[in-house]
Design goal:
Elements: E1 3-7, H1 15-18, E2 28-32, H2 40-47, E3 52-55, H3 64-67, E4 75-78, H4 88-93, E5 97-99, H5 106-120, H6 123-131, E6 148-152, H7 156-167, E7 171-175, H8 181-186, E8 190-191, H9 195-201, E9 204-207, H10 221-224, E10 232-235, H11 244-253, E11 258-261, E12 281-283, H12 292-310
Parallel strand pairs: 1-2, 1-3, 3-4, 4-5, 6-7, 6-9, 7-8, 9-10, 10-11, 11-12
Helix pairs in contact: 5-7
Length: 319
């Protein structure tokens, strides 16, 4: 009898074509689901008859309470090599092997600039006006050349964002709790004296930090209050790094010029979520890692992970 594999949150229904699944087709039946499960009970009902689950990024948490309710589960494949939403100890206790996949930082870097440029030049507003027969030219674009970009987190993604900023002729400053002057110099940025200085002096601020106890709520009402009225905030990292109520407040008050956001406290966003109607907000549905090349890597490696597990030699183990 074949094993059964569930591919979760295949929103675009591309899992079956993004990779070649034939290496496992002799032993595994693969079923993809485009609809997101909002509760643990829904997940249990969906996954009860599956031996293998492929999940994208951290869309679906796998806490101990869920894992223990899936006695048939034997292999969990999560895209990327870092996932904070899986209880690895619980997986080990219940005999569940957890594997990762390759990933690239290029797509979130590119989306960061799509959001930043979209905000700076009022792309959505102007495009909608042209298409709807509205006013011809209603915004005045914000220049990038000679302006300051503040980068919170200068790792693999933040470092590449800095490279692009320099190509635009921007002044780049950066800050994180562990950032050294040497690393900042290496990335072509100036190390800000403090988070506060970065927020007070930057025309654009972009977030590229990992979510942790230290970064959760890092930008609250006090911090957002330091930003200039004409400045912009971009967050393609994790929603919880920015206090969502405080962000809504500054957007509604016009205390900042705008925000480009790809991550939210609840995903997918409920239809009545206040972020859907917030002014001065350019929002995308967590597209940071959603690209053809990344999906090919995710699903291609998922197939390799499943094949290796079936052969008794699992690869890319997480935990």
């Amino acid at each position: 009898m074949k094993l059964r594999c569930a591919v979760l949150d295949d929103y675009q229904s591309v899992a079956s074509t993004a990779a070649d699944w034939s290496p496992v087709s002799d032993a595994v039946d693969v079923v993809s689901f485009a609809e997101h499960c909002a509760t643990e009970d829904e997940l249990v009902a969906r996954l009860a008859e599956f031996d293998i689950v492929v999940t994208l990024r951290e869309r679906v948490p796998f806490p101990a309470t869920l894992i223990e309710r899936l006695p048939r589960l034997r292999l969990l494949v999560a895209s990327g090599m870092r996932n904070t939403s899986i209880d690895y100890a619980a997986a080990e206790r219940h005999g569940v092997t957890v594997c990762g996949t390759a990933s690239t930082v290029t797509p979130p870097v590119e989306l960061t600039w799509a959001l930043l440029l979209g905000l700076a030049r009022g792309i959505v507003t102007e495009s909608n006006s042209v298409r709807d027969g509205g006013r011809w030219q209603s915004t005045v674009g914000a220049d990038l050349h000679g302006r300051r970009l503040g980068i919170l987190g200068l790792g693999k993604i933040g470092g590449r964002v800095a490279t692009v900023a320099r190509a635009f002729g921007m002044d780049v400053v950066a800050w994180s709790q562990n950032l050294t002057r040497e690393r900042a110099d290496e990335a072509g940025a100036r190390l800000a004296a403090s988070k506060e200085e970065l927020l007070e002096t930057s025309d654009f601020v972009t977030v590229h930090l990992a979510l942790s106890d230290r970064t959760r709520g890092l930008l609250g009402a006090e911090e957002l209050g330091l930003m200039r009225p004409g400045s912009y905030l971009v967050n393609t990292s994790r929603a919880a790094i920015v206090d969502q109520d405080a962000l809504l407040d500054v957007l509604h008050r016009g205390a900042i010029a705008g925000a480009g956001v790809d991550v939210f406290d609840v995903e997918p966003l409920p239809t009545d979520h206040p972020m859907r109607s917030a002014p001065r907000l350019l929002a995308t549905p967590h597209l940071g890692y959603v690209s053809g090349a990344n999906y090919a890597a995710y699903y291609g490696d998922a197939v390799e992970d499943i094949r290796a597990y079936l052969d008794g030699q699992p690869v890319r183990l997480l935990g």
